[in-house]
Amino acid sequence: MADTVNKTLDPRVNRRGFLKGCTMAAAALGLSESMVPKMVEAATSAQRPPVIWLHFQECTGCTETMLRGAHPDLANLILDIISLDYHETVMAAAGHQAEQALHDSMEKNAGKYILVVEGGIPTAENGIYCKIAGKTAMESLEEVAANAAAIIAYGTCATFGGVQAAKPNPTGSVGVDSLVFDKPIINISGCPPNPVNFLGTVLHYLTFQRLPAVDSLKRPKFAYGRRIHDHCERRAHFDEGRFVEQFGDEYHKQGYCLYKVGCKGPETFANCPVARFNEAGVWPVSVGHGCIGCTEPKFWDTMTPFYDRLPDVTIPGSGIVDDADRIGTKVLGVTAAAVGIHAAVGIGKRLIKGKSDSEG
Amino acid sequence: MEYEKKKVWSILLRLYHWAFALSIVTLCITGFYIHDPWTNSLTEGSASFIMTWMRFVHFVAGYVFTAAVLARIFLYLFGNKQERILEHLPVTPRNIKNFFNTILRYSYIKGGHDADRLGHNVLAGLTYVLIIIAAVFQLIGGFYLLFPEVPIWEQYGVLIFGSQQSARYIHHLLMWLFMIFALIHVYLVIWNDIREPEGLVSAIFTGVKFHHKA
Question: Would the CB atoms of A302 and B166 count as touching at under 8 Å?
Fold first, then answer.
């Protein structure tokens, strides 16, 4: 049996774990086995890229997933192949010491460091809703981004604003690419994202000296190139029309498709069905819960209600919020009534005035 | 009162109309199934591929719909006098007059018929132009949902709709627009045919209308 307790506590990565991590990242990137030695070489080379990791408006869940998942090798590997100069959650320094570390790293590695941003950036009222060391998130981002070689926006908050950007977005939270335009940005979205995708992006950068190919939302294609639905293990049930009608029913126990209970797999780009989580080979759909579409822009507004297919329709000024089909049926009914009244008026007029009206 | 036979609609316009109408009916039915499948196959290995079939029919009807829209746009530019877009928009004094006259007639305030027009009245024409614009968005949304990884659809889709989910939402709402339009359209065609016996209903089959002899 694996000594999981000591393994968790031991900060070193053993060779087996190291190779395993590199292989996983290569697989996630869609590279062949022959590329693994090259990635290992790049990962073991002395030139570890300096990384500054900023936390803004967020829950630290992204870092938590990376560090404390049931996959210590992966976390250690990530921390091993990068030189993490500033990270509020894991660094030992605090207060002025921490600020000094940030300042030093920025000066020493100007133009070379990778900036990782976790959390949305509030912009309302000049960004006063998130302040660290007396500076707003907007100011910190501007300052640190100015000399970064590249920026990785990690998690849905940093990429698209996330939960706090949900309507009415009181703090005006936005993602990094709404504020920084002159740097290469990679969006690794997800709530939380899979650490394999972060590792893959970093290893790609180390091995090939450039960032991976991205889609039009700046998400790396190796991880966000396909919809969940297209790689889902329950897809056959969808195609053959076998659905879970409600949670806990007979069909749910049989493992049928979760489409009718609001799975957003058909609308969501992510490699969850392939990469899976926590080395236990699970992901939401495999344990009987539909995808909630957390890797997509405006996910909180467009993916809720989570157990329906589509968001409700809000009719401005009326206070009406309802299912699109119920509103559609009502509008169609009102239209039919209007048609009936219109026809009745015409018939009534003709009865009163006589047929000559239609000619004149 | 005497009427004379006048050729109004070309064969391509009539084909467009029926391709558009029938594809919309098919798309609405299969679209509703795809949105909320009302059956459940239940038994495994029953070789029922109902969702696959519904989607297949939806996609084929989608291509027919696209072809119809392209044909209509072609006719807006190169069709006969009644089919061209300038005849449909309230941009000339004659068309603006007809636009307000039509509203008054539909409100039972005014009677009669503008004798100088063979084709649509301008209210109808304008509505059809708006419906075709909605149809263009509908088909771009449809192709974006079908081919999200093809660069051209991905780019336009993300630009116009944002995410797949937003595209799907707008796709669904526009379907309701087409259904409400169809109801009003069919009613007003019959209403006009009763008011002014120029053979409006049969015109979309035959291409011929009957016009007051001047």
Answer: yes
Distance from the Cα of B184 to chain A's closest Cα (Å) equals 7
Number of structural domains in chain B: 1
Q: For the domain A228-311, what is the CATH code? A: 4.10.480.10
Q: How far is B133 from chain A (nearest CA, A)?
A: 20
The residues, ordered by sequence, that sit 6+ positions from B90 with a Cβ below 8 Å of its Cβ are: B96, B99, B122, B126
With 0.80 as the threshold, say if the pTM is over it.
Answer: yes
**What ipTM is given for this predicted complex?**
0.88
Rounded distance between C-alpha atoms, residue A281 and residue A299, angstroms: 25
Structure tokens at B161: 């709709």
- Nearest-by-Cβ selection for B41 from A241, A245, A360: A241
Q: Which of A225, A267, A297 sits opposite B168 (nearest CB)?
A: A267
The reply to whether B135 falls in a domain is: yes
Please determine, for residue A201, whether its predicted confidence score (pLDDT) is greater than 50. yes
Q: What is the dotted CATH code of the domain comprising A17-224? A: 3.40.50.700
Instruction: Tell if the CB–CB gap between A336 and B183 is shorter than 8 Å.
Output: yes
CB count within 10 Å of CB A113 equals 23
CB contact at 8 A, B141 and B171: yes
Say if B148 falls within a structural domain: yes
pLDDT tens figures, A289-306:
999 999 999 989 999 899
Cβ of A357 within 8 Å of Cβ of B111? The answer is yes
